[in-house]
Predict the structure of Alpha-galactosidase.
Amino acid sequence: MAKITMGMLTTILYFYVISEAVTARVLPSHPYLNGQEKPINIFDTSKYGILQLGNGLAKTPQMGWNSWNFFACDINEKVIRETADALVSTGLAKLGYIYVNIDDCWSEPVRDLKGQLVTDSKTFPSGIKALADYVHSKGLKLGIYSDAGAFTCQVRPGSLFHEKDEANLFASWGVDYLKYDNCFNLGIDPEKRYPPMRDALNATGRTIFYSLCEWGVHDPALWAGKVGNSWRTTDDINDSWASMTTIADLNDKWAAYAGPGGWNDPDMLEVGNGGMTYEEYRAHFSIWALMKAPLLIGCDVRNMTAETYEIISNEEVIAVNQDPLGVQGRKVYSYGTDSCYQVWAGPLSGQRLAVVLWNRGSKPATIVVGWAALGLQSSIRVSVRDLWKHEYVLENAVASFSTRVDAHACEMYVFTPSTVTHSSS
């Protein structure tokens, strides 16, 4: 009989714990449905996989900041340091925004004579290690970017076939997060290109968040749960209502595949970049939070408006995103012209529900949600807390709930079923 080593035992115990955790998360029906009614699918996590990454990260969706949406290639170490400072001084870091992620354009256009990646000497003269040390001194974590191809999207050296060297390099610098893109991929299937970096990151011994940016090309929700901590389900977002709503719908398809350890990623937040209205940005943030999407700020946090700060610092909405139950909310009902009146919902810990009423039409409207759409018995009474007004708007709603919603706006609530037993007399 083969001897069981301590390493083998650790692995067995790890997969047992993860398996038990996943099993515990699969809720077969809504706890308030009776036996005669058909269960609603908002609790379905049956497609969620067991991670092979084993890094203990992403128990809730990642939060932080990424340089791309606002700065693109116009980045340097000063911007990164000042951003880390701003996350702390504004209080955003205390709310959970801990990753400071450098996107493309941080490296020289070519490798050095030893074939190693080299930090751009003009924009990052102190090097990534010094920058990581600075970010760590603020109680934050540093993220970096590479590509599962021959080149990055901005034609800097990619990491395809260099996974081991790159992972060791990133670990030596103190990197905490890797966004791994999909450009110049030589036509090789992503299912073959992304696992080698997972294995290389595991082998470094450093805990590094692995974010796959595969753009949803090969439906990564079907396979990336065994590869990374999050996976892009869509193409890049841009700062427009049309882009944001389209991406929300695309990501919604994969709700049953997400869970603690691995999340669907509909791309970074555009809140504060100027292309949408206040109402549209608030809807963007609300739906991303409900979908358990990564909350990665994409604006210049050094120069935010009060409205932008109000949106991204809403602790009650963030709490929905970070809820430990870890079930992705989804679209449960829609009606009206082009299905513009929508109800999105998802379960939370404590037998609560997060509910978003979203008006994607061009005029204000009253949106109604009946209990059947939420998997509730019609007799169930719920308290309704408005997460944007920060107050309870109803204590005993029964059978349905409705509210007036402005065009391109949403309202977001937590429904808590009453525990009071009423006598029939």
Q: What stands out?
A: The first helix runs from residue 6 to 25. Residues 63-322 form a domain with the TIM Barrel fold (CATH 3.20.20.70). The chain is about 25% helix and 20% strand.
